[in-house]
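Run log // design_07
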């Protein structure tokens, strides 16, 4: 069995400073991060909005200091309601 403690510890270290948020892989949405239970009683960073990530691994979260843009994360942080949403497929233009 593989010891996952070093992987969990490294992931916690990356997101341990205040103001460090996450993007998933090369995504554009910036999420707030919290610690959550993982495997063998280890805690790792997870998205505050709890959006699922296919093939989840702590290594798919990329750190950023950009402002949070995820509407669900912003609601959980107690921010003002947002009326905008990022487009899914680039510029939404009539074709």
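design_07 sequence
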């Amino acid at each position: 069995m593989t010891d996952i403690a070093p992987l969990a510890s490294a992931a916690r270290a990356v997101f341990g400073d205040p103001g460090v948020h996450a993007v998933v892989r090369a995504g554009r949405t910036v999420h707030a991060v919290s610690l959550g239970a993982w495997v063998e009683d280890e805690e790792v960073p997870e998205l505050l909005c709890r959006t699922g990530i296919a093939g989840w691994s702590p290594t798919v979260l990329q750190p950023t200091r950009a402002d949070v843009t995820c509407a669900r994360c912003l609601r959980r942080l107690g921010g003002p309601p947002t009326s905008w949403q990022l487009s899914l497929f680039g510029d939404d233009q009539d074709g």
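The chain is about 15% helix and 20% strand.
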